[in-house]
TrEMBL record:
Subcellular location: Secreted
SUPFAM superfamilies: Subtilisin inhibitor
Domain of life from the UniProt record: Bacteria
Family, similarity comment: Belongs to the protease inhibitor I16 (SSI) family.
Compositionally biased spans, kind Polar residues: 17-38
Gene3D superfamilies: Subtilisin inhibitor-like
Domain Subtilisin inhibitor: 63-142
Sequence segments annotated as region (Disordered): 1-60
Name listed for the protein in its UniProt record: Subtilisin inhibitor domain-containing protein
Chief location: secreted
Organism: Actinoallomurus oryzae
Keyword check for Acyltransferase: no
Amino acid sequence: MPGVVTALTLTGCKDNGTATSQPSNQASPPAQSTTPGSQAPAPVSQTPTPPPGGKIGTDGTKLTITVRMSPNSHPITRTLTCDPTGGNTPNAAQACASLEKVSAAKGGDPFAPTPKGQMCTQIYGGPQTATVKGTWKGKKVDTTFGRKNGCEIKRWNDLAALFGPLAHTPTH
């Protein structure tokens, strides 16, 4: 078996006279390996590929957050941008950091709804509601948050930084 591995290794090192050298001031592309019999991986791009429909950096986070402390209260509307951080959301940097943290925990979507069939404690957290619309990392967002059961309270608390300091205060 060692002879087979050596033969495969030497075959990969064969020089057909087509090798090109790079000037010493340029970085070499990363080495790529494959398992014998597998397809070679796609080449690594040296320049970032723009997302569909936009330039790099232009499909960021632009959200409008509307919070109601109760069904009859006046709505509080705020804006948030990330990369660069801005808007009139209190502590916008913390709100953007919360989005990233929840995104990592939820597999990339901080606004994901509670999964269908999920068992939730039947506990009422309050009448507060929030609507979030806009884009997050270039993806369309149009979702609502509430506090009607344990799952929705968790979802609310995960992104409470978006809703502002009043959103933490229960109203009775």
